[in-house]
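Hey, quick one: can you model this chain's 3D structure?
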Amino acid sequence: MRLAGWGVEQTAANFVVHPNTLRAWIRAIEGKGKSTLLAGAVVWNKIDDAVRWAAQELRRMFPEKEFGTRTVARHLMRAGIKISRPTVQRVMREAKPNRPPRSPRPPMAEPIGVVPHGLLKPKKPNHVWHSDITQIRALWFTLFIAAILDGFSRKILALKVYARTPRARNMVALVRNAAARHGSPTFLITDNGSQFRKQFGKAMRRQRVRHVRTRVRAPFLNGRIEGFFRSFKLWARLALFGWNIRSIQRRLDSFVAWHNEKHPHSALGISTPQEVFAGKVLPEPIPIRARDKPNIEIQIAPRHFDRDAHLPIIEISLRDAA
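Sure thing. Here's the predicted structure for all 322 residues.
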């Protein structure tokens, strides 16, 4: 404007801005207005660059499909950094703008009618257990995996492999061993398989456990164990192998220890099943904003549980970089 000798109205028309906007800029240059009109202000809720780097570094280290934005957010929150899944998604889009955001999985169908005793929403550990059996292929073998899960904490209480279809006596022994280690449940939910009928029900009554069988073609009533099997098979397809049942069982034991102690469950927020089962409360995460001008250095140390590349352990630490 000064070089060309234009007035305010002519300059505003040439640069397609309002004359009042141009007058506000002039006042800011002269020190009489808001300096943020020229340099811009730090967005009040903008996350710090160190947090953005940490989220992008986690994506680079763990590109697996099952290690999604929810998992990235949970691991950062366990380290004490308050961050949401949408924020992580936004950071990922900035790093790779051509990649469309992943659509969330549809929720499971809700059960029809009223379920007695609050079985689907237990309020404490060992109130409701879930049990089921699934099949997997390992090399040229078909194996049968039986599992028992605590409905409150999602902790895996038992995971055992069988070369043949387990019978009622096998499932009774599995429940008794789990009860001896973790305590006896009030309710045990199963499907209508042949293992969970008359003989199994009598054994549960002798143990003072109320056996509840789901309705036919209603897998959502035992949805917690079904969801676990879905996650378990992602790992089993890549990592479950062995030359005999004993070696395969050792691999299952490693998976159970990682799942219970190192893996924050999506239904538990940022806690692991063992932390919820034991009643441990984690400290509240805090936001790290760029406007606070923090001098924070974030360090990420990826490891693998029991030398299994598909069982990641992530250690995130914060320290003062000053």
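One thing worth noting: The first helix runs from residue 8 to 15.
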